[in-house]
Design brief:
single chain, alpha+beta, two-stranded antiparallel ribbon, FN3_sf
Length: 64
């Protein structure tokens, strides 16, 4: 990577903060007998073009 390119990239911890989704909401999906959860969020602006997806985990054990 050329030196000029390196100067425009933010440090990894800053990138994580900038690219975190906001307004995250999770709720029971209506009319499915409790089978599903609907999750919505506002995607951040991605000035670096590095967001390729999010991982969502579900557990029946609170906090695990």
């Amino acid at each position: 990577m050329e030196e000029a390119e390196q100067d425009t990239l933010a440090p990894p911890d800053t990138i994580a903060e900038i690219l975190s989704p906001t307004e995250i909401k999770a709720f029971d999906t209506p009319n499915d007998a409790g089978e599903n959860i609907t999750i919505t969020w506002e995607a951040p602006e991605d000035p670096y073009g590095i967001i390729v997806g999010y991982e969502i985990f579900r557990s029946e054990d609170l906090g695990k």
